[in-house]
Amino acid sequence: MGTIPTLEQAQALLEEYNQDEFHLRHAKIVSGVMGYFAQEYDPENVEFWKVAGLLHDLDFEQYPEQHCVKCQEIMRERGLDERLIRAVASHGHLLRVDIPPEHIMEKILYATDELTGLIGAVAIMRPSKSVSDLELKSVKKKFKSAGFAAGCSREVISRGAEMLGWSLDELIERTILAMRSLTDTMDI
């Protein structure tokens, strides 16, 4: 068993490999969403889920071609816990690595990573520029438009919902609620 960093330590590690404000913000949003779901599914390990969310794109900015591969090397060099390494790497399943999400936490990370980007893109198009008044139908409409937020894989989002045994509507609705829960601490 390796080390599980605190949120502060994970943030410092993230900032070592990421400087772009967009990537840092995305990491915080995913971390918050993971914490929201952890409250329901694994309340004793909320910080662990949040750390996984924070570090999920650790290698993306500096090593985009080795995303989900290089992070494993970086994290192992730091002596981090294999459960954390696996969770972070598994969000690249079928895209970069052949590590399928198995634990509920891994499945939620896989399903919500791309979706938070899509929801965020829909939200900033609204007059409020917020998720606070965002509805499922607005996200569904943009989900069907392949050109909108084209970098957010609809295939991954749909596969994530299937892995969780949730409908796409349920995944989107619950992720909107998770992102709303962060509006007190972040500008979303």
Automatic annotation (TrEMBL):
<dbReference type="InterPro" id="IPR006675">
    <property type="entry name" value="HDIG_dom"/>
</dbReference>
<protein>
    <submittedName>
        <fullName>HDIG domain-containing protein</fullName>
    </submittedName>
</protein>
